[in-house]
Each structure stands twice: as structure tokens, then as C-alpha cells.
# Entry
Amino acid sequence: MPTNLLSTSTVTGFGGVVQEYLWNWENQQLRVVYETLGKGSPLLLLPSFSSVSTRLEVGELAKLLAPNFQVVAIDWPGFGESSRPSLDYRPEIYQHFLEDFVKAIFNTPITVVAAGHAASYVLQLAVKQPAFSKIVLLAPTWRGPLPTMGASQQIAGIVRELVRSPILGQALYKLNTAPSLLSFMYRRHVFTDAAKITPSFIEKKWQTTQQAGARFASAAFVTGNLDAVHEQSDFLELVQSLTVPLMVVIGESSPPKSREEMNALIALPGVKSVVIPGSLGLHEEYPAVVLEAVQDFLFSSEN
# Structure
């Protein structure tokens, strides 16, 4: 059952009611933090997976949606302010979590807006059961960074185990989450306006990476262990199996490989799409533009 957080002084949110959902996975209880803002029809807002994943990346978008929806944004297990135990993070965890969370928090099919790697999990649940009434995917991806760069499963597995190791792993993780590297990655394929990548912005992102246990889920994502599908055909098949309206928002400056995958997705019959400024972090960099692009879809009863 969800319960209000008591120690709100330690919570960093975007102005909503912050709660925790206590969830059991393989006899271990995880504390999953979520935040609710606004009144109206329920809307689930899912941040992307990344080393700096947190519900705050969708916070500004949540505030823009709140006048018309009751927005619920989560910190995925292993990320943000949620528990970060040293689990073997893999798709089954997030598939079961999303199904259980939606069932526990909502009593009717809801609108869902999902960024990045959350796309596959939303699509899988939507095909499995009538959890959602509408789906918006923001810069959707299905393949982690190392596999996208061409690393084999064997190499990715070696890297993952190295990062999970006690001493060497912590050192490797700190090197790969240094502020200078975070800034480089944001400039390369997350944001398009370098002026927004300020020292204070990067400092907040870096702080997110320094939480106890942060390297475990992060290493799983980077090495492809959170890829819920492993072939483009499987991802497209999920979309073709949908029975609810789908809209896809693409950043015009998306990395070439990611853009190819997104183009294949929006080429499918029945998929609504729009291209806006931005890259993989368009939901954080241009929240007002995202809202303008999707509001007709969200409010229409004829999708």
C-alpha cells in the first residue's frame, strides 16, 4: 500500500504530494517514491532510464499537465529517491513493478506518458492487459547505450559485472559519472541548447548518481540489461499489437541510430507522430513544446 512520506524535509520534488509505494520483489521490500500533482483524469508520467534517472526530469512537464490531469510521476526502482539495493536488475523487475504499481494506484485505464527506455515496458503492459487508455512515447528507445554502440552481450556482461564489483566497480562508476563526463553526454545526445547545461544543472545530476547503491541499476541500463526487447522487429510488433491510441514525439536532433528506430516506429499504420526541437532529453529540455505537441491528442475523445 502507498503511504505518505514522513520525512518530507529530505525529499526533493516538483511541488506535488510525495508518497512511497512499498513493493516486494523476491522477498525483498523496495521503497518506490512517487509524486502526485493536480486534479482531473489520472495520468502516469514515466521518466526515462539513465544513470541520472529521476522523476524531476519530468517535473516541469508534470506542472504543465497538472491543471488538466492528476499527474503521477515515479522514481523507478533502483533510481532517484527509490530504494537502490544490489539486485540483478533486469526487465522482469520493471515489468512486474509497473503492472503492480498501476494496479495498486489506479482503478481504471489511464493515460500514460513515457520517456525513453520506459517505452517497451509500457507497450508490453498495454498488450498484456487494458491498463492504459492512451499512450504517448517521448523519444522512445529500446536498446541500451553499449549495445547501441555495437558492444556484444559478452562484452556488456563483463562491463556490468565490473561495475557491480565492490572496489573496482565503485571506482569505474565514479569515473563514468564525473561531472565533466555528464556534461559531455548531455551536450552530445540529451540536450540541444548548451546554455541549459549549467554547472548547477550538472551538479544536481551528479548528486543523483552519488546515492548509495546507484551504480547497480545504472550499470544494468548502460549495458543493455534493462532492454525489454532485443530486436527492432519485437519492438514494432508490440506497437502493432496495441488496441489503444498511440502518439510518438521525436526530437529533430536525435542521434542517428535512435532516429532510425523512431522512424521505423512512426512508419507503422495508425501511429500519430510529431517532430519537435530537442534530442533524447526533449521532455526535460522543452516541456512546454512537448505539451503543445501532444495536448490535442490527450484531450481528444476521437483518437
